[in-house]
Amino acid sequence: MIIDTTEVQDINSFSRLESLKEVYGIIGMFLPILTLVLGITIGVLVIVWLEREISAGIQQRIGPEYAGPLGILQALADGTKLIFKENLFPSRGDIRLFSIGPSIAVISILLSYSVIPFSYHFVLSDLNIGVFLWIAISSIAPIGLLMSGYGSNNKYSFLGGLRAAAQSISYEIPLTLCVLSISLLSNSSSTVDIVEAQSKYGFWGWNLWRQPIGFFVFLISSLAECERLPFDLPEAEEELVAGYQTEYSGIKFGLFYVASYLNLLVSSLFVTVLYLGGWNISIPYIFVPELFEINKVGRVFGTTIGIFITLAKTYLFLFISITTRWTLPRLRIDQLLNLGWKFLLPISLGNLLLTTSFQLISL
Amino acid sequence: MMSEFAPICIYLVISPLLSLILLGVPFPFASNSSTYPEKLSAYECGFDPSGDARSRFDIRFYLVSILFIIPDPEVTFFFPWAVPPNKIDSFGSWSMMAFLLILTIGSLYEWKRGASDRE
């Protein structure tokens, strides 16, 4: 033998080390994703509880109070109940489309969380096409709704699915044009860069002041994309029973429920990131990154504060959309489409032109 | 470059898994004993479902999606134009304006012809 045994052992241990490093690398990739998914799930549970409590407060009821302190476990209890429900398939429907539909809606919305910066360098992946990825992925969701509407073989579901698709594609263009104006202002499509660009003058540096028209158009369009109440035509109870979810029961209904709240959360997060300065503390003359960059503990503290600030701004918008639900009446489908195509689209296009001309002048 | 997209690729695998697990969880628990044909028929307010649900529907749903096809690539083309404005000189900006002008004329024509009217 030319190679002696110690050398072989060395090679073996070296290759084992390499594989260990790979394993750690994979775990290091899984950990942020699992944290993100866990965080989103808890966020959704909190939103469901908030929605029920705020609705109860507006209607002068008590709301959930038995499951856990202040009823905060109500959403968890409801979810557990849905798991034990009978798994029904409509007899004349398409079982495959019927089952895949809700999952597609959930998957596409879950994926759009990957580009949201929750705090300073606390983002799953800082892509340079961040907002574009969000816009591309979020437009997959209506396919899932259309599939479930078609697969149910029910007149209400079919109409609901069609309405959902028409509504989301109509409001996607104003939404995208508003995002485009923001990335024109920040010279970047990366969500982290967009937040960084707003970090200078406290709350005076927010894009809200530079893009007031874009902000309102974005808010209206994101409400429509989430199918929240002034625009909840796809699931209008009085006309379409429950729209595309009429035939659903058990956990599949739960998936639609989760998808709608995930969508609401991601829209509010994007309002925060694009218009309200994200994780910045937003009081003039206090610069968080410099204060907390001193040592490791300070950095962790700064990140935690950033997450809290992001969530505070986000929940403000959630509160606004929940109170909107009990304030405004539902639109008609023609009013809804006219609002999208004849009002929001020209206005957002004008906003984009205005932003472009300012940029051209300043060049 | 790849390291930026690696978490998204893993996430792309994890999120379908998550929803598949959620879809699969009820199978061991959920009972399927009390199923009778009336329960599985389509819900039409308690009556027997009349006809097939996949029948004709309003042409205007088609029109909306056709109208959507043009502005959507337009917006997609806008992104590369918008992001590095310092690298694009005024010629680049104005040529995009010409593109936008053509599309605006098109949508104005469509508006005047009443394609987006829903009486």
UniProtKB/TrEMBL annotation, chain A:
> Pfam families annotated for this entry?
NADHdh (PF00146)
Membrane-spanning intervals of the chain: 23-50, 95-115, 127-147, 255-277, 297-322, 343-361
Q: Primary place of residence? A: membrane
**In the UniProt record, does the keyword NAD occur?**
yes
Transmembrane helix listed as a keyword: yes
Q: How does it sit in the membrane?
A: Multi-pass membrane protein
UniProtKB keywords:
Membrane, NAD, Transmembrane, Transmembrane helix
Location(s) in or outside the cell: Cell membrane; Membrane
InterPro entries attached to this UniProt entry: NADH_UbQ_OxRdtase_su1/FPO (IPR001694), NADH_UbQ_OxRdtase_su1_CS (IPR018086)
PROSITE patterns for this protein: COMPLEX1_ND1_1, COMPLEX1_ND1_2
Q: State the family it belongs to.
A: Belongs to the complex I subunit 1 family.
**Protein name as annotated:** NAD(P)H-quinone oxidoreductase subunit 1, chloroplastic
Organism this protein belongs to: Rhodamnia argentea
Gene that this polypeptide is encoded by: LOC125313470
From TrEMBL, chain B:
What keywords are annotated for this sequence in UniProt? Electron transport, Membrane, Mitochondrion, NAD, Respiratory chain, Translocase, Transmembrane, Transmembrane helix, Transport, Ubiquinone
Cross-referenced Pfam families, in alphabetical order?
Oxidored_q4
EC number in record: 7.1.1.2
What is the membrane topology noted in the UniProt record heading this document? Multi-pass membrane protein
According to the lineage, what is the superkingdom? Eukaryota
Signal peptide (from-to): none
Keyword NAD attributed: yes
TM spans, by residue? 6-29, 61-79, 91-109
The Gene Ontology terms for molecular function here are:
NADH dehydrogenase (ubiquinone) activity
- What reaction does this catalyse? a ubiquinone + NADH + 5 H(+)(in) = a ubiquinol + NAD(+) + 4 H(+)(out)
Any one GO CC term of the record: mitochondrial membrane
Catalytic class of the enzyme: translocase
Chief subcellular location: mitochondrion
| Compartments (UniProt record) | Mitochondrion membrane
Q: Which family does it belong to?
A: Belongs to the complex I subunit 3 family.
Summary of the function given for this chain in its UniProt record: Core subunit of the mitochondrial membrane respiratory chain NADH dehydrogenase (Complex I) that is believed to belong to the minimal assembly required for catalysis. Complex I functions in the transfer of electrons from NADH to the respiratory chain. The immediate electron acceptor for the enzyme is believed to be ubiquinone.
Name by which UniProt lists this protein: NADH-ubiquinone oxidoreductase chain 3
What does the organism's lineage look like at the top?
Eukaryota, Viridiplantae, Streptophyta, Embryophyta, Tracheophyta
